[in-house]
Amino acid sequence: MFESIEAAPVDPILGLTDAFKAETRPGKINLGVGVYQDEHGVTPVLPSVIEATRRVTASEKTKSYLPIPGAPEYGAAVQLLMLGNGHEVLVSNRASTSHTPGGTGALRVVGDFLKQNFPGATIWMTDPTWANHPAIFAAAGVKTGTLPYFDAATNGLAFEAFLDALKKLPAGDAVLLHGCCHNPTGIDPTIEQWRQIAAVLAERKVLPVLDFAYQGFGDGVEEDAAGLREFCTPGAELIICSSFSKNFGLYRERVGAVTFVSQDAERRAIVQSQVNRVIRTIYSNPPAHGAALVTTILADADLKKQWLGELEHMRNRINGMRTLLVEKLVEHGAKADYSFIQQQRGMFSFSGLSKEQVAKLREHDAIYLVGSGRINVAGITPTNVDALAKAIVSVL
Ligand code: LMR
After folding, report:
1. What is the pLDDT of residue 299?
2. pLDDT bracket for residue 133 (50, 70, 90)
3. How far apart are CA 356 and CA 73, in angstroms?
4. Domains of the chain
5. Whose CA is nearest to atom 1 of ligand 1?
């Protein structure tokens, strides 16, 4: 049977890692997949995670299955980190969180949930969005559509066009937003714009789905949750997909979560019963280890403080590289104004480089970035920034 199968295209993001590994030229630079690298190009295990691993390993008593939504302490820790102590959603007990294998697992649970419970719904996405978003929802059989988001003329948010498009959406559809550090553009709405977006969706009865994969990489853990909290008004419904790959550096442990915020506690239980049904047929119940690390760190005041410091260090390093890249571009003779790179937030910068320019960088300089022109700023180091800026200017 397999002779009829055709090869699938290489993944536009993860496929780059394989190509980069196979690259033999010295001085190669990897700005592809969204993985943090330190100033030596290494993706470290955070010291807080090393300590949590020691504690979890020492105290683990069983490898028996977890409940379908995972450990309740993990769910509670995730909710607290997103919403903050004493938030009305927590006090009303109207949110339920399931531990999912990564943020991708969370998105797929949402896809299956929408398909099974709202078969006619379309999920609308920003243009551009993470390359895997449309694929995940299409795989679940959910219709997808796009909304204007990026304004190439200003390298900023096309806010009016975005809001106008939201105002035209039919009730019962869903919108997938990036809670912070928009991937791939690095451009987020201001808090006032978030407020307007939340109000329009509530008025239109359109379900907000927030992909929240970079909390702490923008301006801080609290600051980055501010937009998301605008949606959590009394009685409002929404879904949040979390990932702890980046902010805890737990990429391969696949630690994510999906949180359904319902109208009230009664509805919460009914919704969760459907979420459990979805999870049971995809991966049955989640892996334990990574979530236990996150729970251990967030539950211990000292360890949490240490982790926040490590996260701040990663954030500051990325923002420092944004500034340095802009300086080096000017130094190498770039004519255009690249200060927008410094205003963008999170791991990524939408550089404005075309597909052809991206291909040239790879061919001539062994510099790897996603075809859309997205740069993983965390791949820039004080050692490679000069060569990078020089190569970029040479293809402009
Ligand atoms: C990225 O956008 O590079 C990351 O989210 C990793 C991935 O899975 O694509």
Report:
1. 97
2. very high
3. 49
4. 10-44+316-395 (3.90.1150.10), 65-299 (3.40.640.10)
5. 34
